[in-house]
């Protein structure tokens, strides 16, 4: 059976769901295809449950560090119940009905591009002039000897768990590995965090990795860099032992794989639409999110920046392009946050990346405890809290920044806006920040550039 639509969206996560709604609101007849849950990874197994699980032990740690407070009781069963409510017990009826109320036809099942303007799903062939690929990513599982046989967790098991394991070995110290390591440890698990490279968060400035490594070790997490898993075995008692390349081993009740994600493009049939994939399996796109004639790719599947807020942004860009409006994606001021404690926030380029692009870089780095009043009013004995701003000397504008401090994910947007607007440094120097706030650190850092 064949049906004709103005647009067919493959994947109903943040990007696909948003795009389908916008096109339907513009009067188009839209079909959305989803193989799992409407809403995608973020609301069920990633952003939402992880932040719900991170917050209670963070608040407990805040209380421990604040003057005159004791340590509150922690009740994981209640936290898990609250999480289950927010992820709707993995029931997507409500978001599915929201699509249908907009007049969008929802098809459940694995969708495949069968040729230009043709999508096959659930024994139907959907014909259209516009295909939007928004099928996201899946966890990358390393080819470690014995890992499949021993069994492992990904973010899905970690964010929907009902009991905290006694011990966990985490493979990978990117954002997911760091967040889940801290969450599991603070709920009572003994955690060993293994990072194959010599740096935590290797895509960020090296100092960021140093600061969060110190904080995690102070928490009691066994953080090991230059530690690559070579093999995994499971004993009769169910414990997993991870043998390390170069010698040594660690063990835990659970092995959690958090080394990254890859685009979910296997078997999608993009080649039938004349589209070649990138080296990592990503769908390469232009500034309008176009992947080819009549095909757009939005969200994590195109490998640009794997964030929910970028997926929603790209949905707006692609829809504007489809509807004949001028829109080009601009990624210069996209914030990125690791919701650990202390928080890590960054935007734009690191100093090293800026130099690699040929920018005449000038930087200013501050120890916040020595520079502003907020850290000592926020907690006793503030831990390593720093920020750095990166400026283009020739143009006199900011091109990047990072911060490691409480609530950094909230106040990084001050720099994001400055980068987006290309605000002159002279203007930023004349900006007045509220006292005492962490945001003062940015204005102090801009003034320090003059020195």
Automatic annotation (TrEMBL):
Disulfide bonds join 42-47. Keywords: FAD, Flavoprotein, NAD, Nucleotide-binding. The keyword NAD applies. InterPro entries: FAD/NAD-bd_sf, FAD/NAD-binding_dom, FAD/NAD-linked_Rdtase_dimer_sf, Pyr_nuc-diS_OxRdtase, Pyr_nucl-diS_OxRdtase_dimer. GO terms for molecular function: flavin adenine dinucleotide binding; NAD(P)H dehydrogenase (quinone) activity. PANTHER family: MERCURIC REDUCTASE (PTHR43014:SF2). NAD(+) binds at residues 172-179, 260. It comes from the Bacteria. This is PF00070 family, FAD-dependent NAD(P)-disulphide oxidoreductase. FAD binds at residues 51, 300. Residues 5-315 form the FAD/NAD(P)-binding domain. Pfam families: Pyr_redox_2 (PF07992), Pyr_redox_dim (PF02852). SUPFAM superfamilies: FAD/NAD(P)-binding domain (SSF51905), FAD/NAD-linked reductases, dimerisation (C-terminal) domain (SSF55424). Belongs to the class-I pyridine nucleotide-disulfide oxidoreductase family. Binds 1 FAD per subunit. Its cofactor is FAD. Residues 334-445 form the Pyridine nucleotide-disulphide oxidoreductase dimerisation domain.
């Amino acid at each position: 059976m064949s049906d004709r639509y103005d647009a067919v969206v493959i994947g109903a996560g943040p990007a696909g769901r948003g795009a389908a709604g916008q096109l339907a609101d513009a009067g188009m007849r839209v079909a959305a295809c989803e193989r799992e849950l409407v809403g995608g990874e973020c609301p069920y197994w990633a952003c939402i449950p992880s932040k719900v699980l991170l917050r209670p032990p963070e608040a407990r740690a805040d209380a421990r560090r604040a003057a005159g407070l004791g340590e509150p009781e922690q009740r994981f069963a209640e936290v898990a119940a609250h999480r289950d409510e927010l992820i709707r017990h993995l029931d997507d009826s409500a978001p599915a009905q929201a699509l249908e109320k907009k007049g969008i036809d929802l098809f459940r099942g694995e969708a495949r591009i069968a040729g230009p303007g043709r999508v096959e799903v659930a024994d139907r062939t959907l014909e259209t002039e516009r295909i939007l690929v928004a099928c996201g990513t899946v966890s990358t599982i390393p080819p470690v000897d014995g890992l499949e046989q021993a069994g492992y967790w990904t973010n899905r098991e970690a964010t929907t768990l009902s009991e905290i394991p006694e011990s966990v070995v985490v493979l990978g110290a990117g954002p997911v590995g760091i967040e889940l390591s801290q969450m599991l440890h603070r709920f009572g698990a003994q955690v060993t965090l293994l990072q194959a490279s010599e740096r935590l968060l290797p895509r960020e400035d090296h100092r960021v990795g140093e600061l969060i490594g110190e904080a995690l070790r102070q928490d009691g997490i066994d953080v090991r860099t230059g530690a690559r898993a070579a093999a995994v075995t499971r004993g009769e008692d169910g414990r997993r032992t991870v043998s390390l390349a170069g010698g040594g081993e660690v063990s835990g009740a659970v092995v959690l794989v958090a080394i990254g994600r890859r685009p979910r493009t296997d078997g999608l049939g993009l080649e039938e639409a004349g589209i070649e994939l990138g080296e990592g399996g990503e769908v390469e796109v232009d500034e309008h999110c176009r992947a080819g004639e009549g095909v757009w790719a939005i969200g994590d599947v195109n490998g640009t920046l794997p964030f929910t807020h970028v997926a929603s942004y790209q949905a707006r860009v692609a829809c504007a392009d489809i509807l004949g409006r001028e829109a080009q994606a601009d990624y210069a001021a996209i914030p990125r946050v690791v919701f650990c404690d202390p928080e890590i926030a960054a935007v734009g380029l690191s100093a090293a990346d800026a130099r690699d692009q040929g920018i005449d870089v000038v930087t200013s780095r501050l120890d916040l405890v020595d520079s502003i009043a907020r850290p000592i009013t926020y907690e006793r004995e503030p831990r390593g809290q720093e920020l750095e701003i990166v400026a283009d000397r020739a143009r006199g504008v900011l091109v990047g920044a990072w911060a490691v401090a409480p609530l950094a994910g909230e106040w990084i947007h001050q720099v994001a806006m400055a980068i987006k607007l290309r605000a002159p440094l002279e203007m930023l120097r004349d900006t007045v920040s509220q006292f005492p706030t962490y945001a003062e650190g940015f204005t102090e850092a801009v003034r320090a550039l003059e020195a």
